[in-house]
């Protein structure tokens, strides 16, 4: 099939690395893996940071202009067989695909669409209504987590839904990892306000409780909240923490391979691509049992998920893995097996092909 791919929040070509950009790229790879031809329909970023009508109106004008451009292009070169929209939600609705798909009788598909009734206030209610209409129109809405599936079911009971587990391209993790330092802790996360800062704050508090143990830590990440994040760790010995800043995605596996345990509390995580990568590298995870994290970490098997907001429990889970290397080693092996066998690009591509094959042709 010839597939028009669009990610309103962040194009796969966006210069700033993030889990969202990475998953967009992985979906394109998965579609191509099973023989589809994927073209990026638009680079237009439709993102509303705040509910401002002026910004919303300006973006709507850009969306109309982009739709007009694509209309001319399709009239000249022919329409695609399917429109694939990645991650439409209240701050980044797809205002291009639904209209074009309807006008050209092209099946419309979403992946990782989300809907939350608690956002239905002010302008967000208007943007969520747009998301809801797109979900209702879609021939298929691919959900990555049961949390998102339930949200769509509650809002649009008749929506066509399918499940695809979060996945990564495991090609960078195929080699058997060398033994990393079992007491080396690793975190990979952007530094921005909100949930990321809250997760860093909890992490610093937990580490402060286990200063009596012989651990060191590597932190990969950067962002506008860098100073605020580092301030949270000011009470910890500076020689224990290595701040690596932002690094190229291809360099992340080497950092993970050098560690023994992956830490990230995970406030607000849709699921967390970094958890998948860490486990692929053979690192058991300590995170919270929160948001979409349980979709990618198996509690008691590939890591520990602690009660939300419980710093003591989070610290205790880290201490357990530091103090019991045999248990850590068993979890490390299971974490690696889980990702390489169940959450690989090939496995996801096969599932994606199965889902799309059931969509009636245009």
From TrEMBL:
Q: Name one GO molecular function term.
A: glycosyltransferase activity
* Signal peptide range in chain numbering: none
- InterPro entries recorded: Glycosyltransferase_grp1 (IPR050194)
Give the keywords, sorted.
Transferase
Note the Pfam families from the entry.
Glyco_trans_1_4
The record's Gene3D superfamilies line, in alphabetical order, gives: Glycogen Phosphorylase B
Q: What is this protein called?
A: Glycosyltransferase family 1 protein
State the species of origin.
Mesorhizobium waimense
């Amino acid at each position: 099939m010839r597939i028009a791919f669009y990610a309103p929040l962040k194009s796969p070509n966006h210069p700033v690395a993030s889990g969202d950009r990475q998953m967009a790229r992985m979906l394109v790879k998965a579609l191509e893996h099973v023989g589809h031809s994927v073209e990026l329909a638009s680079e237009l970023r439709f993102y509303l940071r705040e509910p401002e009508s002026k910004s919303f109106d300006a973006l709507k004008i850009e969306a109309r202009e982009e739709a007009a451009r694509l209309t001319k292009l399709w009239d000249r070169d022919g329409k695609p067989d399917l429109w694939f929209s990645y991650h439409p939600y209240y701050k980044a609705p797809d205002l291009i695909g639904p209209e074009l798909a309807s006008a050209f009788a092209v099946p419309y598909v979403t992946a990782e669409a989300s809907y939350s009734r608690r956002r239905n206030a002010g302008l967000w209610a208007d943007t969520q209504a747009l998301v809801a209409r797109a979900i209702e129109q879609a021939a298929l809405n691919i959900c990555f987590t049961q949390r998102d599936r339930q949200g769509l079911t509650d809002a649009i009971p008749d929506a066509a839904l399918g499940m695809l587990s979060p996945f990564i391209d495991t090609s960078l993790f195929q080699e058997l990892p060398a033994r990393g330092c079992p007491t080396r802790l690793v975190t990979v996360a952007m530094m921005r306000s909100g949930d990321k800062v809250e997760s860093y704050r909890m992490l610093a508090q937990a580490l402060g409780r286990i200063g009596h143990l012989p651990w060191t830590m590597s932190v990969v990440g950067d962002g506008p909240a860098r100073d605020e994040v580092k301030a949270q760790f000011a009470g910890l010995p500076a020689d224990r923490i290595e701040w690596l800043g932002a690094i190229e995605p291809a360099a992340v596996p080497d950092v993970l391979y050098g560690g023994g345990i992956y830490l990230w509390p995970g406030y607000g995580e849709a699921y967390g691509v970094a958890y998948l990568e860490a486990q692929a590298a053979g690192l058991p995870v300590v995170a919270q049992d929160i948001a979409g994290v349980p979709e990618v970490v198996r509690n008691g098997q590939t890591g520990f998920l602690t009660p939300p907001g419980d710093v003591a429990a989070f610290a205790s889970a880290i201490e357990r893995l530091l103090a019991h290397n045999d248990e850590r080693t068993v979890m490390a092996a299971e974490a690696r097996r889980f990702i390489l066998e169940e959450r690989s690009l090939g496995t996801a591509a096969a599932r994606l092909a199965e889902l799309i094959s059931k969509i009636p042709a245009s």
